[in-house]
Design a protein that fits this description.
Largest sheet: 7 strands, parallel
CATH topology: Rossmann fold
Number of strands: 7
Structural class: alpha/beta
Number of domains: 1
Strand order of the largest sheet: 3-2-1-4-5-6-7
Number of helices: 8
CATH architecture: 3-Layer(aba) Sandwich
Radius of gyration: 17 Å
Distance between the termini: 25 Å
């Protein structure tokens, strides 16, 4: 693994991450903890959350279902009560479950938007007042290159992820006067354990490598590194933009 950068501006900052117990989210939790930040994360998986938090210093978590906005707000309040007002919010939680367009019901559509989009806005609404009091902050929304690639097999997910970019740009405008930066990180196909277990069969990987400019599959650590940069003072003039971590596969 390469020697990665240290960002002194992240030390002792309060960082909140949704969906932090596994996959890309867990990689972010570990990366921020290694920078000396105070990290809080939300997740639905009690076992994975406890295991991750117990292995790190300065990390706290709350269990909640992000589709329940009132429960999420309560959990965010508990984390900021313990750790202090957030300097960084990472809206990471999502699920890319496959579904055929013919089978989508109105109820399933609404549930997919609640899982992949709705909580992002209400987390911003909950956390931004504390950032305003702090004099600024960084909000990072996790997008996806699935819709950039015109990927099929999950129309409700792809629609939600496309909407993340609109959310980022409008909130960057609304919060910019408070020196709150809002950006989108756009991962490609990241080799989390979930992806390896469910979808990373040899034929699919071969086709994906052919679409990428770079030949290597993408480890979650590289998404976390982009998020660290955008959270740090090094990115002080970066807002309302997309930051791609997809090995040139669009």
């Amino acid at each position: 693994m390469p020697d990665f950068a240290i960002y002194p501006s992240l030390k002792d900052k309060t960082v909140i991450i949704s969906g932090g117990a596994q996959g890309i989210g867990a990689e972010m939790v570990m990366a921020f903890a290694a920078q000396g930040a105070r990290v809080g994360f939300l997740d639905l998986d009690e076992v994975a959350s406890r295991k991750l938090a117990s292995s790190l210093v300065g990390v706290s978590y709350e269990i909640c279902d992000l589709r329940d906005i009132d429960a999420m707000k309560t959990a965010l309040g508990a984390l900021t009560d313990r750790l202090g007002p957030a300097h960084v919010l990472v809206n990471n939680a999502a699920r890319d479950d496959r579904h055929a367009w013919q089978d989508v019901t109105p109820e399933y559509w609404d549930e997919r938007q609640a899982t992949n989009l709705k909580h992002m806005f209400f987390a911003i609404q909950t956390i931004a007042p504390g950032m305003i009091e702090n004099g600024g902050g960084s909000i990072i929304n996790m997008g996806s290159n699935s819709w950039w690639e015109a990927g099929g097999g999950f129309p409700a997910y792809a629609t939600a992820k496309a909407a993340v970019h609109g959310l980022t740009r409008t909130m960057a405008r609304d919060l910019g006067d408070h020196r709150i930066r809002v950006n989108t990180v756009v991962p490609g196909w990241i080799m989390t354990e979930r992806q390896k277990t469910l979808w990373a069969i040899p034929e699919a990987l071969e086709g994906h490598r052919a679409r990428q400019c770079l030949p290597d599959l993408i480890d979650p650590v590289y998404v976390a590194r982009m998020v660290l940069f955008l959270a740090s003072d090094d990115a002080a003039m970066c807002t309302a933009s997309n930051y791609m971590v997809e090995a040139g596969s669009i």
